[in-house]
Amino acid sequence: MIRVSDLRYQYSDSGPVLRGINYTQTRGESVALLGANGSGKTTFALHLNGILQGQGQIEVDGIRVASETLEAVRRKVGFVFQSAENQLFLPTVLEDIMFGLLNQGVAVEEAKRRATQMIESLNLEAYAARNPFHLSAGEKRRAALGGVLLMQPEVLILDEPTTFLDPPGIRSLTRMLNQQSMAKIIITHDSRFAIETTTRAVFFEKGQIVAEGPTGEIIDRFGWV
Fold this sequence. Notes:
- The chain has helices at residues 41-47, 70-76, 93-103, 108-121, 137-149, 167-178, 191-197, 215-222; strands at residues 2-10, 16-25, 30-35, 55-60, 63-64, 77-80, 155-159, 183-187, 200-205, 208-214.
- It has eight helices and ten strands.
């Protein structure tokens, strides 16, 4: 599903951030990206749908990620950012969640029906008509996730999805993710959440993948608790 070869990237105001990343992921596989802040996890993930473009080669479902293929790639790769505010911009939660479908040409009533079902599954019914910026941080996170899930991506990337969630919220998110059949990449510092939602982990250090294997083994090896 995903193949990355010798990916390198450097921000204009820093040294190399990614130093020759090689990575593969099979269809439907769930992978945790682990490592310290600044180790390159998010920078790597932002390359998978072309938000960043460095040196090297990336293929998603046989499509090479390049400027001319971004529309096709982004239909396959959904990204839920660490800061939900980056994805919420319309007057109501309902409008935000249905925006992607409307953008794809789905009729308004059908988009509204699907968005309403998603809102119910996320336990956000009470907030459907509310401005997203009036929600709590955890509610914003669920709304942003709903908009991405509704697009039915083949790869779902989540950057620190448990941030600001209380224990019931984390349990609910865990159940929802485990019900999804698409490939998932989860960037997280939450070892329990990683174990419960992924089968494999890769560990980043100074812009390189230094280890990979079953999630629990990698967490134990690096003391990532």
